[in-house]
Amino acid sequence: MANVLVFAEVRGGELRKVAYEAVTGGRALAEQSGGGQVHAVLAGAAGIADKAGALAQYGADTVLVLEHAGFAQYNPEALAATVAQRLQGGSYGYALFSATAQGRDLSPRVAAKIGAGLAPDLTGFVVEGGAVRGEHFNMNGKTIATLALAGSPAVLSVRPAAFQPSESPKPLATEAITSAVDPSASRVKVVELKQGNAGKLDLNDAPVIIAGGRGLKAPEHFKLCEDLADAFGNAAVGATRAVTDEGWRPHSDQIGQTGRNVSPNLYIALGISGAIQHLAGMRTSKTIVAINKDKDAPIFKIADYGIVGDVFEIAPALTAAVKQAKAQG
Ligand SMILES: Cc1cc2nc3c(=O)[nH]c(=O)nc-3n(C[C@H](O)[C@H](O)[C@H](O)COP(=O)(O)OP(=O)(O)OC[C@H]3O[C@@H](n4cnc5c(N)ncnc54)[C@H](O)[C@@H]3O)c2cc1C
């Protein structure tokens, strides 16, 4: 039996979807290792404690609330010191982070402070004989390494969307914790957060993703994706690597084995062939809709709904239909 410490990621005072995925992953770790407890670290400015209930809903036995103005933005030094101190003082078998920009920065800091092994960016894991083994893509996904971590606590980071957030309600229990060091004395200060798609949803948080491929033929035709995303209102736009390599979209939009891993409720693929490397990043989406003029395109093998036809005719019609359905309530 091993307790698991999970870092629940917050941005702009809101829990990110990866926070629920991390708690779900933490529950899986705890259960596989014989039924330990999951403790979730929730850090932010005053008022962040209000988000604790949502973490309990996804299976956190205790939410460790770290409230301080110095945590209004990501504060790597103070967070690493606080999480490391907690790990050293508690009976934790594992610490689990999301392999996001924040988690990729924080997890090695924590591992170094406690002298623990780190298995980064895992796409899955199993606990066997008290040790965890996790899978990790190497060399742009050309090989998959299996990493075995000995020692306790072991530090892991998990790829976004590797776990579907799954509710597992627990009675809300919180514990206020304090920073191990003065958060305002950190040498590293995040002074501004610039989001790639300012004002738009992040791919990992969006319930709907409209993704475009080379079938759109030119960067300006991504307006078809933008229009459909705007019609939904809760959608983000993604792309294939063929598109980002062409420079039609930023690399941060790339979905797939060597890009972002996503798992939205609805994934609409416009002019995407469905190469295995693309599917690796989106196949866990709940409902997949594909529009492609080639009836034999591999994307149709995993699509729940397929439309064989010209994306330049179908996408605008779909946008109009979504707008109409929304207008009718
Ligand atoms: C090591 C490695 C890692 C990779 N990692 C990734 C990754 O992370 N993500 C990723 O996406 N790819 C990745 N790739 C690339 C991948 O193999 C494919 O080349 C890429 O996904 C193809 O992108 P695409 O579907 O946009 O283009 P294409 O394969 O060219 O497909 C375009 C599709 O559009 C359709 N089409 C054309 N015109 C129309 C029209 N008018 N209406 C409707 N449909 C139309 C065509 O029928 C075709 O199916 C990787 C490759 C390697 C080797």
Written description of the protein model:
The chain has 329 residues and is of the alpha/beta class. The protein has 2 domains: 3-185, HUPs (Rossmann fold), CATH 3.40.50.620; 208-327, 3-Layer(aba) Sandwich (Rossmann fold), CATH 3.40.50. It contains 9 helices and 16 strands. The chain has helices spanning 17-32, 52-57, 76-89, 101-114, 223-232, 241-246, 276-279, 299-302, 311-327, and strands spanning 3-8, 10-11, 14-15, 38-44, 62-67, 92-98, 118-128, 131-138, 143-149, 154-158, 174-176, 208-212, 235-239, 266-270, 287-292, 305-308. The strands form 3 sheets. A 9-stranded mixed beta sheet has the order 9-8-7-10-6-1-4-5-11, sandwiched between helices. Strands 13-12-14-15-16 form a 5-stranded parallel beta sheet. Helix 3 (76-89) crosses helix 4 (101-114) and helix 5 runs parallel beside helix 9 (311-327). The model has no long low-confidence stretch (mean pLDDT 93). Residues 140-142, 213-215, 240-243, 254-259, 271-273, 275, 277-278, 281, 291-294, 297, 310-312 line the site of flavin-adenine dinucleotide.
